[in-house]
Structures are given as C-alpha cells and as structure tokens.
Write a structure and sequence with these properties.
- The protein contains 8 helices and 11 strands.
- By secondary structure, the protein is of the alpha+beta class.
- The protein folds into 2 domains: 95 residues; 178 residues, Immunoglobulin-like, CATH 2.60.40.
- The strands form 2 sheets. A 6-stranded mixed β-sheet has the order 8-5-1-2-3-11, covered by helices on one side. A 5-stranded mixed β-sheet has the order 4-10-9-6-7.
- Helix 7 runs antiparallel to helix 8.
- The longest helix has 34 residues.
- The radius of gyration is 32 Å and the shape is elongated.
- Bound molecules: copper (II) ion (CU).
- Copper (II) ion binds next to loops.
- The site of copper (II) ion has 6 residues, from loops.
C-alpha cells in the first residue's frame, strides 16, 4: 500500500512537470514573451493569496465556534474567574492582531503584485512608523504582563495561606495520595527515611499532629471553603494540575510547594452546568515524570460541607491507635518511632 502511494506521488509529480513543459512550449509557439508569462504567473499567484484569505479566515472562525464545547467549562474556583478573564483578554488581543495582519498580508500580496508601470516608493527611514510599531506593542504587552502579575500575586498571597483546610498532596511515580490534617488542621511532619510499606508517606508517628491525619486516594473538598494544598514529591518533579479549578503547581522533591484556592461549584452542580451527567473533576500530573506519567491522575469531588464531614469520618487514619501508643512509649530517637510504626 505504501509503495503504491509513493509510486502514485512520484508519477503525479512527473505528470505535473510534463504539463508545465507542454504549457511553456505552447506559450513559446504562440509568441508570448517571458515578461507576459511572468505577469500571468504573478496574477495567478496573487489571486491564490486572496483565495486563501477568503477561505482560510472564515474556516478558522468556524472551527473555533464548532469546537468551543471541547474547551474547559467555567472556572470552578474563586480565583479561576480572574484567570479566565486574563486568558480572554489575551485571546482577544491575539485574535484582533491576527485578523488585521493576516488581511493586510494577503490583500497587499494581491494589490501590490509586480507591475512594470509602477515604481516602489523608496524612503530611508520613518520615525513615526518606527515609533508606532515600538510603542504600541510595548504598551499592550506591558499591560498584559502587569495585569498577569497582579492576578498571580493575589493568588499566591502568603498572608492568606495560613487559613484554609490543609490537605497534603503527596506525589510519587505514579500516583497521588491526599492527606487530610484532621481537627487540629496540622499535618504531622513527614520524612523520607520514615517511609515503609505501612507508612508510604513517611509520616512521623511521634508527632502529635499526625494522630488525626487521614489519607485518601481521592481528593474530596467541601464547596466554598478555603483549601490549602501542601504539595510534596517522593521521587521526581511532578505537577498537580486541576484544570477545572485553574490550579497548577509543581510537586518538587525535598520541599513543600503550596496552592491556596476555594472551590465554588460542586460536582453535582457542574454536571448540570455542562449538561453532562458523567462529568467528574480530575487531578492530573502535568510533568512528564516517567513511563506511566500518562496514567498518573486522581479523582476529585466537590461536595457540600455536611456530606464532606461524613465522608472524612469514614477515611482511614495514617496510624492505628496501637502504632501511636507504641510510638508514645518509646522516647527519641526518631528511628525507633519508625520501627514501631511498622
Ligand atoms: Cu507525575
């Protein structure tokens, strides 16, 4: 099949070359000069440009409208609305610039095609033109960058980050685990040397703050409440990406990164908004982190407060009571706590 296709292409090219030769010979026989021939070619080429514009630009608009439903639905978080507004402004600047420059490009290629009776206008430099194409993009781009920075500062405002329910997102090749801080809203410290089969997050059982910590393989959040994600990685750089909430933050080994946000739309409500009864939020790894990266994800749900309290009650604690008692019985060093946690 491939051989056949290659042969078809080769013969197709040969036929086209033959046709071009015949056309040239016919032109020579009819006494057409090179100049006339060139003028004809220019005319067809410039008309081709116009045709490309007339078909291409409306087709682009059509595709953008037709496939709009494949884009993300409305932002499901408080800060996401601002992010979307920024995105929209960027798109409008791009779209307007694209249409102006494309129309000028194709139209000029047609209008100013070679004409032996026309001389091009020569000028050495033009201060006014250069000022315009330097100052206008500078102002537009500065506006975009500054508004982006202002929005980003609002999102990452450190002053706010001590409020909100703490949830650790622990990333490793190739899954995520969520750890809820419990009533004290304090996550027990963890250390990679404390990692065992029974304690995959390496939580320190001697730390009192860890006693009520709970883990889950699903990220469940109460609606309209501040959430403080504390993000860690065991091995390589991963990325916590929650597209519907316009949240993305890298998970970096050896340090904790944070993201503070407030979900505003429950999963049930989003099903109604999208008209999709099967709609579910999702968390994805957004850094190519290894062979199973494509499959590194975690289901996400946003529910009402009371439903959330019930759900959290059912989740399993990081440590059993026996493990905690054993840890309490042994005093320092940390390593003995690890053994007892097994
Ligand atoms: Cu990953």
């Amino acid at each position: 099949m491939n051989l056949l296709l290659t042969l078809a292409v080769v013969f197709g090219i040969l036929v086209l070359v033959r046709i071009a030769n015949v056309a040239q010979m016919a032109a020579e026989l009819s006494g057409e000069t090179d100049e006339e021939e060139e003028e004809k070619a220019n005319k067809w080429n410039s008309l081709g440009f116009l045709l490309f514009m007339v078909i291409g630009l409306p087709l682009m608009v059509y595709c953008a409208i037709k496939w709009r439903p494949l884009m993300l639905p409305v932002a499901a978080s408080e800060h996401g609305v601002g992010v979307d507004k920024l995105m929209d402004i960027n798109w409008w600047v791009l779209i307007i610039t694209f249409f102006i420059t494309s129309i000028l490009l194709f139209w000029f290629a047609y209008k100013y095609r070679y004409n032996k009776n026309r001389r091009s206008y020569y000028f050495h430099d033009n201060m006014k033109l250069e000022l315009i194409w330097t100052v206008v993009p500078t102002i537009v781009l500065s506006g975009l960058i500054v508004s982006g920075l202002v929005e980003w500062n609002k999102i990452t405002d450190i002053a706010k980050t001590d409020q909100g329910m703490k949830v650790q997102i622990y990333a490793k090749q190739f899954d995520f685990t969520a750890r809820y801080a419990g009533k004290d809203n304090m996550l027990g410290t963890s250390f990679f040397r404390d990692i065992t089969d029974a304690n995959p997050l390496g939580v320190d059982s001697a730390d009192a703050a860890a006693a009520d910590d709970k883990t889950s393989q699903e990220l469940v959040m109460p609606v309209d409440e501040d959430i403080e994600l504390v993000i860690n990685s065991r091995d390589v750089i991963h990325s916590v990406y929650l597209p519907h909430f316009r949240v993305q933050m890298n998970a970096v080994p050896g340090m904790a990164t944070r993201f503070h946000f407030k979900p505003t739309i429950t999963t049930a409500r989003m099903k109604e908004i999208t008209g999709n009864a099967k709609f579910e939020y999702i968390m994805l790894c957004n850094k190519v982190c290894g062979v199973a990266h494509y499959n590194m994800k975690m289901p996400v749900r946003v529910i009402e407060r009371d439903e959330f309290v019930r759900w959290l009650r059912e989740q399993k604690k990081v440590f059993t009571r026996e493990a905690l008692n054993a840890a309490a019985a042994t005093t320092t060093p940390v390593d003995s706590a690890v053994v007892s946690a097994k």
